[in-house]
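Morning!

This is the sequence you dropped in the shared folder:
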Amino acid sequence: MKNSEKRQLEKWQERLDRSSAAYSAQLQKIDRREAQYSGSHELKPTTENDFKKGGKLRTTNHVWNITAENIEAMIDSTIPMPKVTPVRKKDERLARIIENMLRNEIDRLPFEQLNDEGERTCKKQGGVGVMVEWDSTQNTHETSGANSVRLVHPKRIIPQDGVKDLRDMDYYFLLMPMTKKAVKERWGVDVDKEGEEKPEMRGEGAGRAEDMVTVKYAVYRNKDDSVGTYVWVNDIPLADMEDVQARRLRRCKKCGALELDNAIMLEEPSYNGEFPVGSEQRKPRKDECAYCGSRSWEETAEEERTVTLEELMGFGVKKEVIDALSAQYGPVVQPMAMPGMMPGMEQAMPGMMPEAGMLPEMPVEQEPVEQEIKIPYYKPDLYPMVMWINVTAYDTFLGESDCDKVADQQNTVNRMSQKILDRLVKAGTRIFLPADAHITSDSEDNVVQRVTNLTDLALTKVVDFSGNLEYEFGLIQQAASEAQKVLGITESFLGRNDPSAQSGKAKQFAAAQTAGRLESKRVLKKAAWADIYERMFKNMLAYADERRPVHFQNEQGRTDYEEFNAWEFLDVDDAGELYWNDQFLFSCDDASGLASNREAMWQETTAHFQSGAFGNPQDVNALIVYWTAMERLHYPGAGDIKTLLEEQRQQQMQQQAIMMQMQMQQQAAMGMPMGAPQGMPQQGGNMR
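The structure's back. Tokens below.
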């Protein structure tokens, strides 16, 4: 390892150690929250008697898990739908395409599972990380790369010491468990002899696995405000990329040709890196440079791409951009070589060409040559991590944890449950006898007990210990009620009998009041998903070179198709400078929560139909509009019913056309003008 590489490794190791030490208290809380949600049997010590011999905590045999009960009641299974608003009016069509593309991505990616896991982790820990990356390995026959979205548990995120907002951090760390084989395939570094440094990243109590290692990522802002990464395992560097979001392409080490240019295949390799004159296309071998035949490649960060106007037109760039570039980069005139001379002959045969003036003057032909235009590659320049916060809290990296809010109440319930169990186990019948009594007790019924001394019988006393549990049960109920109040949950919200609500309207009001207290959680969830959608769009803009098909529902309720083409976002300003248009506002549709409740939407739509909002309920056109709306809401069989109604309408129109044609034929046979009402005399007839 070189000295510069060693210094770089030591720098990031020192930063990680410092940040981990400052974040250690929060890491301990994370483990405690997970145990509390899972129903831990340990009791929080309040007195010396709460410790067993050896300093271990006392446990309870019975847990009423009010923590999980209340958190599960607040789980929101809906995925906020994207809403894209253009900054400029002329970009409304592009905003619609972005929105439809994101909805397609929601269907493609496992967002239901991600949302379900994220909801619970966010409420337990106060926040969870969502990583939005571009996976270049997801290739099809027509596309290269795709968006990848995954959750990152807060235990695996180490923030920069002293900074609480991820967007303000100079750097942060990720500790990801990976197999040694995966490390070898991704970075090409053999770590087979390395051990797993932090097995607890796979879960509390996890032991060291032979095939696992802990990969450490440092994600940081470089001097150009771009995003860089440094990756290592133990003391072995894996990757050091100052601009990880730059377009990275492979170039030939020998001639510097891009791997993308291998689409132009030559008849024979050109060892000087130039196109041979008159060469025909040939198909090179895999990983072979089409220019020089070399098979040695290196990955480079590219800032721009060189294209021609004709290529831009084929890419689908907007017409106004093409017109502006045509005025700026028109065709230029380039002199052609003299007849009989091959290009490069003068360099190839030095000293063999006649001197100036030895040959007769010949006219030099000229041809227009299209200039090449340099197109900058787009970069998102955003951290790929999005923090999904539960409830904001002052001076904390994660938000407020619902487990922390009810930790005391959960401990009280556990302690009282154990006390009740102890009292019930110890309860029963006690027989008090004189010390010298000769009476034996037996658990069987109808046993004859013989008494030799009546005095012993008189001194015998039987006492039943049932135990009074009224106060313990009362305290348990009080603690459970406190937990609900702290989290803002009512009995009506849980669907239980609420004695405070005496009517159905009162129950609806109580449930709505609870929903209002939980609104801040929904607002922060929508804010996180809006950031996720923004990064997904910018990844597509930066790395999706091909046209991507997008399907959507049109105004008639039918499935229609369009394309997401990143080249449509290439624009030019008034100064003639090219730029990528990413000026769109990302948010989440406020109606997505109601739209997710299909039964309620079915009822609302049916009520509007019956009230005549779609027209006369008996009219077939109104029925088609109604069942089109029901099909959009995924009502079972709505599409089939709509098809039958459309066929019925078509038959009615055909019957009307036939009847009109027959009527016109009758009028023609009677000598009446076309379209004249039947029973009216012809013009010029005698009227008596």
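Headline: Confidence is low (pLDDT under 50) at residues 263-273, 275-281, 337-350, 680-688.

More detail when I'm at my desk.
O.
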